[in-house]
Amino acid sequence: MAKIFDTPLYPYTRSPDQEETTPVRHPVVVIGAGPVGMAAAIDLAQQDVPVVILDDDDKVSFGSRAISFAKRPLEILDRLGCGQPMVDKGEIWNVGKVFFDNRRIFEFNLLPEDGHKRPAFINLQQYYLEQYMVDRIRELQVKGKPIEIRGNNKVDAIGSHTDHVTLEIDTPDGPYNLEADWLIACDGAGSPTRRMLGLDFAGRVFEDNFLIVDTIMEADFPTERWFWFDPPFNRGQSALLQKQPDDMWRIDLQLGWDIDKEEEQKPENVIPRLRTMLGDDVKFELEWVAIYTFQCRRMEKFRHGRVLFAGDAAHQVSPFGARGANAGLQDTDNLIWKLKLVIDGTAPDSLLDSYDVERVYGADENIKNSSRSTDFITPKSKMDRTFRDAVLELAETNEFARPMVNSGRLSVPCTYDGSCLNGHDEPDLPEHTRVGGPLVDAPVGKDWLTDLTGNRFQILAINSEVEPVEVNGVSADVLKVSTADAPLVGERYLGGADAAVYLLRPDQIVAARWKEAKPADIEAAMNTAMGG
Amino acid sequence: MAELKTTPNIAYADDFYADLLAVHEGLSEKESEALNARLILILSNHIGDREALGGALALAATPK
């Protein structure tokens, strides 16, 4: 059977733009048809902003790559119309087990709270996500939405100007030029856009190598995340085993710094390693083998005039914690509504600076967590290792040491505390639904709060009567919820209060909240959230 | 939150000091280091208070 990543999904076709002698100007061009670039484009097209995606290839990515998708990104994908196939196909997991040497020292359960549409985590190969996103793009095209994906269109040069960007593009038919009012660069950790514009990408490189293997096997291991410190089959190093759909298993084996990368990737060296790990009885075949080193770094700024960077192009983390693709989807979630308002002229250009501020904040949180996990997993000095081993030793029988065991702190969305877009907060209301945080899901009758919101400003009126408001021609409609029909909304949004009013941004971030709000209060908060 | 105590707080300090040496007796340097690491973690958890712990880290890093 042909693999998804062998089939061209967006093969090159000649665009009418290539016949023009004067470069055609597009409102938005996205570079990179990975999950982040496609999320940006789908989000724009859903709001009728014309967008062209350029990609230097014509297929989904090779190998499974990002495999763990967290709850918040799944909610974002729901808003983009790609969430359901992800969850239908993905492996839902909650239990993680941690081993030290040959002993299981403890297990954790993500213990998802009831009353959320989406699970805490699913595992799914990145190429499935990319395929679902291409499907969604085709569906939008059928509906007449202004979205295009151009395969084998490699951007060779970029010119950055005050009010537009110029692009020189190479294709199988030769070069052509385009212009864009706005450029979104989602071209990955090695971002050619970043290089062409001569921009920085500073941070830490961790001196370690990891062998990453996707293997197809019929094994009766449960759908759990298993992590080993110093196991007998990989002495002095670590290992991670995770299940994906289609009997595919992801194995990460730490190899150390001084290794021969070419040699270690050869099947004759990989297979014996897996044999020792899995036992002689397990039949497996290799699907994808790669070696990677860790880097934790980010660009100083994600906005450079008319060029906006998102995903790995803007920030890179170690894979422990699944904070790569999950963070990238939160980048475009934050960016696109702002870009739409700026394009429409309903918000000032400076609103886009808040993209930089908020997502740099998010990236720093991810880099901090990811660096700490990596420091625990790959201790960099003798004393680091002594403490690490002491924690592991104690964790087996002493509950107090378990919170210090760090095999990856799994991706959770950040709360933009202190953001310049935040409006009034009411400290008596529950902390986890505070201003700057993402909407916390809850059932509302037969619906979900996450499905009833997003894509526009909204006023969530809980046991309250408020009128819609309008600021600069942008309206916020009212979603009335009675806690009689939605007791969990009461629990999560009211705490002990009788009523509350929440203002939600189009990316489902809480912009402001009150126990009682006058129209002028809501308008003022909405003005602030629009960068006014 | 509580400030780090820097006045004598252990009754029969000589006895405690002797106990501290005793648990290390006969251990290799590596074993002793591991024991110290466990001890630091156990005591830190018992203290819990981040201000006191921060004071202890700072004092240990610059003892003068």
Report a brief summary of the structure.
The complex is a heterodimer of chains A (532) and B (64). Chain A is of the alpha+beta class and 532 residues long. Chain A has helices at 35-46, 71-79, 83-89, 126-142, 192-196, 261-264, 267-278, 325-344, 351-377, 382-395, 449-452, 487-493, 519-529; strands at residues 24-31, 51-54, 68-70, 91-92, 95-100, 103-109, 121-123, 147-150, 154-160, 165-170, 176-185, 202-217, 225-229, 238-244, 248-256, 284-298, 303-304, 307-309, 315-316, 443-444, 447-448, 458-462, 469-471, 474-481, 500-504, 510-514.
Name the structural class of chain B: mainly alpha
Beginning-to-end CA distance, first to last residue of chain A: 55 Å
Distance between the termini of chain B: 24 Å
Order of helices and strands of chain B: HHH
CATH top-level class of the domain at 4-90 and 120-200 and 297-365 in chain A? Alpha Beta
Q: Choose one word for the global shape of chain B.
A: globular
Regions of chain A with pLDDT < 50 over 5+ consecutive residues?
none
Report the average pLDDT across residues of chain B. 96
Q: Helix segment count of chain A?
A: 13
Q: What is the count of structural domains of chain B?
A: 1
Structural class of chain A: alpha+beta
The assembly state of the depicted protein chains is heterodimer
Which SSEs are present, and which pair or pack?
The complex is a heterodimer of chains A (532) and B (64).
Chain A (H helix, E strand, L loop, with lengths): L23 E8 L3 H12 L4 E4 L13 E3 H9 L3 H7 L1 E2 L2 E6 L2 E7 L11 E3 L2 H17 L4 E4 L3 E7 L4 E6 L5 E10 L6 H5 L5 E16 L7 E5 L8 E7 L3 E9 L4 H4 L2 H12 L5 E15 L4 E2 L2 E3 L5 E2 L8 H20 L6 H27 L4 H14 L47 E2 L2 E2 H4 L5 E5 L6 E3 L2 E8 L5 H7 L6 E5 L5 E5 L4 H11 L3
Parallel strand pairs in A: 1-2, 1-11, 2-8, 5-13, 11-18, 22-24
Antiparallel strand pairs in A: 3-7, 4-7, 5-6, 9-10, 10-11, 12-15, 12-16, 13-14, 14-15, 16-19, 17-18, 20-21, 22-25, 23-24, 25-26
Helix pairs in contact in A: 1-4, 1-8, 2-3, 2-8, 8-9
Chain B lengths: L12 H12 L4 H19 L2 H12 L3
